[in-house]
């Protein structure tokens, strides 16, 4: 007899959760929630789940409650937090944006573009005289968030930051790690492409399909519709050889030229070659 709060998952949902657990780039919070749901579907009690995963009882119960309220995706995703009442006024935020529109050179610095660190320093030092004493305690991430919400094209900001060696230009270059996951069920050999935005940890998954090219096109269209048209989508290919197929190359370099860049993870042999000859780069697929 099933327990009152035991959850039922389809075979496809279980396969999806296992893929999240196995993916290396998935947020630990998402991976833990996937484990909670899988264990509970197998009849493991919440207290035993807590012991197995070395977690507090509150996140375990919260995950299960969210599943009952809204299903699988509701349980995996973070809730939108209301946060504290707004402490920084609209006028103060507008002053930060207007400052970012000026060249630092006009304010006594020896450079033409702001870095977030320099802008943060300037805001803290001049907040009181500008009439915004609260900004003396502002954090660098808050300054970054405020300018990111503005029209960055008009701001005098440095345009490049790094993430694991990749340039993220104006924060409009998205890095997606992806790989295929076969689904063997009832004689089916369907494959789905699952990817993860390595900055936000958001998960994307195509529908299972016996034709991996169809599944890949759906995955690319999903990404294409998710991000603004001005973004460049950089895909790190972990064993998705489908990206080398003529159909996918035609889509990437024909129909959506300039929208996607595909990089492949090197094989063990390529790692060795790079260690021996450091001048050999891993070039993106073209």
From TrEMBL:
Q: Which InterPro entries match?
A: Homeodomain-like_sf
Pfam (any one) = HTH_32
Stated name of the protein:
Helix-turn-helix domain-containing protein
Query: Which organism's genome codes for this protein?
Result: Candidatus Avoscillospira stercoripullorum
């Amino acid at each position: 007899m099933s327990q009152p709060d035991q959850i039922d998952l389809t075979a496809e949902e279980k396969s999806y959760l296992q893929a999240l657990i196995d993916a290396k780039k998935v947020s630990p919070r998402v991976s833990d929630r996937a484990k909670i749901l899988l264990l509970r579907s197998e009849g493991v009690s919440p207290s035993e789940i807590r012991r197995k995963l070395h977690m507090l009882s509150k996140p375990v119960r919260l995950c299960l409650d969210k599943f009952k309220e809204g299903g699988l995706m509701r349980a995996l995703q973070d809730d939108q937090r209301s946060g504290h009442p707004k402490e920084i006024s609209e006028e103060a935020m507008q002053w930060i944006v207007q400052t970012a529109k000026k060249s630092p050179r006009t304010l006594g610095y020896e450079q033409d573009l702001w870095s977030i660190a320099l802008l943060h320093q300037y805001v803290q030092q001049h907040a009181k005289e500008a009439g915004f004493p609260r900004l003396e305690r502002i954090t660098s991430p808050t300054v970054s968030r405020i300018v990111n919400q503005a029209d960055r094209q008009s701001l005098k900001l440095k345009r490049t930051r790094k993430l694991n060696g990749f340039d993220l230009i104006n924060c409009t270059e998205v890095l997606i790690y992806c790989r295929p996951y076969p689904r063997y069920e009832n004689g089916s050999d369907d494959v789905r492409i699952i990817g993860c935005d390595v900055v936000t940890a958001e998960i994307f998954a195509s529908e299972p399909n016996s034709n991996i090219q169809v599944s890949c096109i759906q995955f690319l269209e999903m990404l294409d519709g998710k991000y603004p048209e001005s973004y460049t989508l950089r895909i790190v290919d972990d064993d998705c050889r489908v990206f080398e197929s003529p159909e996918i190359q035609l889509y990437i370099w024909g129909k959506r030229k300039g929208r996607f860049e595909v990089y492949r993870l090197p094989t063990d042999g390529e790692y060795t070659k790079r260690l021996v000859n450091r001048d050999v780069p891993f070039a993106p697929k073209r």
